[in-house]
Amino acid sequence: MNSLLSPAQGPVSRLRFLSLVPIGVHQWFLLLFLFGTVAQAQWQTTTYALKGGFNAIYLHGDASYTTPDTLFAAGDALKILEVWRWNRNPTQVQFTSDPLIPTPGTPEWSTWYRGNPGATSLTALTGQQAYLIKCTGAAADTYSVQIKHRPQPPESTWVRNGANLLGFPTFKNGANHPLMSAYFATFPAAITANTKIYKYEGGDLGATNPLQVFSPTFEQLDRNQAYWFNAEVVGSFYAPIEIAPTVPGGLEFGRTRSIIAVRLRNRTSAPVTMTMSLVNSAAAPAGQTGVTGPVPLTRRVFNTGIGEYEEIAITGAFNQVIGPQSSLELEFGIDRGAMNGGSSAFYASLLSFRDSGNLLEVFLPVSAQPASLAGLWVGDVSVNQVTSTVAGSPGATTLRPFPLRYLLHIDDGGTARLLSQVFIGVLEAAPNGFGVCTLETALKDDSKASATRLVAAHMPLDLALAPTTGGVALGSTAEWTIAMPFDDKVNPFVHQYHPDHNNKNARLQPVGNKVESHTVTRKVSFEFLGPTPPGSSGWGTTVLGGTYSETVTGLHKQPLSSAGVFTFRRVNDLGGITLTP
């Protein structure tokens, strides 16, 4: 295998900006994709047996909640000198019979060096990735290193005519992992005679490290190790039984989901019995959202006697037979009534999948929060009526609806705030979690490129207003008073460079309200519909709507009123908000 490379960082993208343009259905899917992932997680600790010199490990979950300096700061982890993450690249080079020392600075590798931040390009350990780890000492020296991570659904990408450094979710039965020949029986290209496979044995890189595997028939496939393959194939094989949840991150119920399906595909030519069981999450690392308790997960089973689905609590292991070369779907639900914590409580577990052939074990993350309206909502108002109390002006339906955009955040305590702008990204305050803030200065400087800004352009700047009366709930009405002072730069009467509209007299002395400009006040009201409208999906959980009204004073000697309808759609369920830097 010739030189091993170091990945260059991708181009920095600009801050994503969304303003007043009405959002279509496809854009809502984009928003949910961008903002739907929260910093809450379930946790698992894996112990890696390392040797002095170079080792190759596979990380089945994400450990990017902290830096390698912190992750490897105690115990045997202090023996780690370097970490190299292999980045999948379709143009990497072929094996050679004489492996060379990896060299940094090219796209296939990101590197971390202890005590040398200037040469470090690897700042976090991401999941479903292979890593080279160099430890102090010789191959005879052994170390035990634990890495706490957020388990992720399995994945794998094989590239043609190149080196693939891969790991697999195999099952350890006692002291043994399955043989390569059994595990790859449904994907024989991985171990054919013309395929070279290498594994790391510790010690310096050279003729015996990595060591070629000449007999896959007798070689165990360790789930904690990564192996070099140069199979002449393009594919996505990771296990003989594929496990794919309909939600990419796993069984993430959040505050609103009620059912998530998991598709099981048996690639083998024999029936397979899958055993599934719930596993408790490990405790969250310092600075991360704590785990309140295990998820009260249920499975949906069709009762032919009554012709309906039943929700059966998962209290122990249960089995499911999958026919040869066939697929089926399992549906899982959640008993939110058993979640007794407050609105900010977070429940997390792992759902283990193990096959009867003792080939694989996959851990799907499971998480949920109590039902709540907490989070960020983006609303579209369609104003279709304008009225006035001016004599002879009874009001009329508008020729065409006028759109308004509103940003609404509801915190974990139930306080609803109308915002003039909001930022979604990594926060500057420790522990630098992903969150919501109203000022750009509250974002972490080196993460602003991946943050997003949403703006309600018709609102005064930098506002976060709680209701003057009422609150946000189905069947209730909430009212806000939006004031634009006479000397505010967004006041429609004010013009900085016009002598009749700069709030100054002929001697350039400041003048008060109602001289050159007037304070404008908008009283807006949202009456939230209670019953679910026909054909609506997600009403009361991801969608809110109802009747909108607004009265403006200060623009005319008589109040001006308008009305219409509104719809709020939930962007995320982040109940925390940073209102100051």
List the helices and strands and how they pair.
Elements: E1 16-18, H1 25-35, E2 44-51, E3 53-59, E4 61-62, H2 68-71, E5 80-86, E6 109-113, E7 129-135, E8 142-151, E9 164-166, H3 180-183, E10 197-199, E11 211-212, E12 227-229, E13 241-245, E14 251-252, E15 259-266, E16 272-280, E17 297-303, E18 308-313, E19 318-322, E20 327-334, E21 347-355, E22 361-368, E23 375-388, E24 396-410, E25 416-419, E26 421-426, E27 434-437, E28 452-455, E29 464-465, E30 469-470, E31 477-484, E32 520-528, E33 543-553, E34 560-572
List keywords for this structure.
five-stranded antiparallel β-sheet; nine-stranded antiparallel β-sheet; 581 residues; Porin; 3 domains; mainly beta; 3% helix; 3 helices
Q: Which architecture of the largest domain per CATH?
A: Beta Barrel
Strand order of the largest sheet: 29-25-24-23-34-33-32-31-30
Task: Name the overall outline.
Answer: globular
| Proportion of residues in extended strands | 35-45%
How many helices does DSSP assign? 3
Written description of the protein model:
- The protein has 581 residues and is mostly beta strands.
- It is 3% helix and 38% strand.
- The chain has 3 helices and 34 strands.
- It has helices at 25-35, 68-71, 180-183; strands at 16-18, 44-51, 53-59, 61-62, 80-86, 109-113, 129-135, 142-151, 164-166, 197-199, 211-212, 227-229, 241-245, 251-252, 259-266, 272-280, 297-303, 308-313, 318-322, 327-334, 347-355, 361-368, 375-388, 396-410, 416-419, 421-426, 434-437, 452-455, 464-465, 469-470, 477-484, 520-528, 543-553, 560-572.
- The strands form 7 sheets. Strands 29-25-24-23-34-33-32-31-30 form a 9-stranded antiparallel beta sheet.
- The longest helix is centred in the first third of the chain and has 11 residues, at 25-35.
- The two termini are 50 Å apart.
- Residues 1-14, 18-30, 32-38 and 93-100 have low confidence and may be disordered.
